């Protein structure tokens, strides 16, 4: 029996390269992002235990001129591939389970500068991946499998698309090519693809049982003269309120919009949600305003409008926020913060899971997720994060879209268009009741 189990394990994990049946090949595009941190270090790429190639380091002085480096490889089809990246000594940096389909390409980003609690590898949508690949230079591409070279270069030739939004018609035509996108089963989660047509009546009834609540906070006109005022948060909060109530299943009576609230008003709104929200309901919390990381207390804070620079008791801590999120009995809670040091909400826990599931599975299991405009760093007053978040919500034409899918649809746009190279974050909030599901936006 043990021998049979071992044989089955070997059959599942083996990843044959250079398949003779080209129509079954999966082409995997791996993009090492342009980062100054660790730019001079080499990283090795594996599928399972099989070595694929090496991302060689470059001089940090030239990273700002580089679009990043690519490894492209053809793999014989397997339902799931295990992608691993190690340093040159063999120490594993990260691994990612990639879900694939015969004949279909997939795109993965590798962030060599990923810090604590942030995954270095993640799968992105094919549309986003194609767009990035079209912008790179041929000198930055390593094609590991010679048999796929003509297909890769032909694909790149027809992907000469514009970086502006919306995605050009040329990119849309490419995304419908026979090689890449013939009808196959689609799944939600890390691969960022939406499932719409096969959702059954039972699920429709289940998702309709609950209400969608939101608490939207924008703070910019601070009472303490030692705290700088901001220009955008109230306007950004209003814009999010408008898009949620107009396009999604957030009734106006269930959405609390607070402009320049005091600390007591924030806690009062959260207290009300503790009483109102049921296990069938969903809750979105949004905050735009000043954030502060206290190095002595190792704690992140929001600054209400009546916050005092010298009095921590007037601030609103991540600890208090997590207590409320854990205590509000929603099925799904999504926190979105557009503030300095918003990523501190993840500081004690790895931010991502490798799991992928369809919409029903994501909705079935409770979740407590957060989406932030940056990590432990300052972010600018004019937020490209909220700009692209609202744009994606407005332009989304799917009936159902998960928070994770939404996030990865605009993450790269934020990185490429922010003045200080801010990197948005997404993940679970530790010790608040997350069980692996995700918040699902339902379009009207």
Q: Low-confidence stretches at least 5 residues in length (pLDDT < 50)?
A: 1-23, 62-66, 160-199, 341-357
User: How many DSSP H or I helices?
Assistant: 11
Q: Alpha-carbon distance between the termini? A: 53 Å
- Indicate the structural class: alpha/beta
Tell me the count of domains.
Answer: 2
Tell the overall outline.
globular
Named CATH topology of the largest domain: Rossmann fold
CATH architecture level-2 label of the largest domain: 3-Layer(aba) Sandwich
The CATH class label of the largest domain is: Alpha Beta
State the total count of DSSP E strands: 20
Could you give the order of strands across the largest sheet?
Answer: 11-10-12-16-17-19
What characteristics describe this protein?
444 residues, alpha/beta, Immunoglobulin-like, Rossmann fold, six-stranded mixed sheet, 24% strand, disordered N terminus
Description:
- The protein is of the alpha/beta class and 444 residues long.
- It starts with a helix and ends with a strand.
- It has eleven helices and 20 strands.
- It has helices at residues 2-13, 126-135, 149-157, 169-175, 201-209, 233-247, 263-276, 318-327, 359-364, 384-395, 403-417, and strands at 25-32, 43-47, 50-55, 69-76, 80-87, 92-99, 106-110, 121-124, 141-143, 212-218, 255-259, 282-288, 291-294, 299-302, 316-317, 332-338, 367-372, 400-402, 425-428, 440-442.
- The strands form five sheets. It has a six-stranded mixed sheet with strand order 11-10-12-16-17-19, sandwiched between helices. Strands 8-7-1-4-9 form a five-stranded mixed sheet, covered by helices on one side. The protein has a four-stranded antiparallel sheet with strand order 3-2-5-6, with no helix packed on it.
- It folds into two domains: 18-175, Carboxypeptidase-like, regulatory domain (Immunoglobulin-like, Sandwich), CATH 2.60.40; 201-442, Rossmann fold (3-Layer(aba) Sandwich), CATH 3.40.50.1460.
